[in-house]
Amino acid sequence: MKVTPIPFPSSRLFLLGCLLGGFFAAWWTITGESWEVLADGRQYLMMYQGEIAASPYGYRVLVPFLARLLPMSPQAGFAVVTISCLILTSGVIALYVTHSRSPWFTSITMCTLWGMSFPFVYLAIVAAAGLSGGEALRWFA
Q1: What are the CA-CA distances from residue 54 to residues 23, 66, 111 (Å)?
Q2: Residue range 18-50, pLDDT digits in tens
Q3: Cβ pair 58, 47 in contact under 8 A
Q4: Cis ω before 64 (30° cut-off from 0)
Q5: What is the pLDDT of residue 28?
Q6: For the whole model, what pTM was predicted?
Q7: Secondary structure of 43-70 in the HEC alphabet?
Q8: Is there a contact between 8 and 104 (Cβ–Cβ < 8 Å)?
Q9: Beta-carbon neighbour count of residue 81 at 10 Å?
Q10: Cα–Cα distance measured from residue 11 to residue 90, given in angstroms and rounded to the nearest whole number
Q11: Region 41-60: what's the mean pLDDT?
C-alpha cells in the first residue's frame, strides 16, 4: 500500500523541527548529568584565545571563531553556538526527510530520534555547563 504524503509547508516544518530540537536541548540541559569536558574542549579554548591547537583540532576553526564573535565569556559563547547548531540541525533534518517525499510525521519522528540520540544528548549536557551562569540564557530568551 502506497502512502501519499500530506502536503505540509517546508517553512512550518523547519520551524516545527527547530522547536522540537529546542525542546530536547532544554530538556537535556536541565535534566542531564554533568559530564567532564574532554581534551577537545581545551583545544578549542586555546583557539578561542588565539593560541595554536594540536592537530586535528587546529583545523576546526569555525566554532571557536563563532564563539569569539559573541560578546560573552568563552564558556557561554561555546554553549550558545552548540545549542544553536543542535536546534538548526533538527530543522534541517525535518526538511531533508520531507524533501525525500516521506510523510510529514516521519520528519517529526526523525527529529525526535535525533533529540534522543547520544550526540545530541552529549552536546546538550556539555553545553549546559556554559549555560549555568545565566549569561548565555539571554540569547535564547
Answers
A1: 35, 19, 34
A2: 888 988 888 887 777 665 556 677 888 888 888
A3: yes
A4: no
A5: 84
A6: 0.77
A7: HHHHHHCCCCCCCCHHHCCHHHHHHHHC
A8: yes
A9: 23
A10: 13
A11: 85
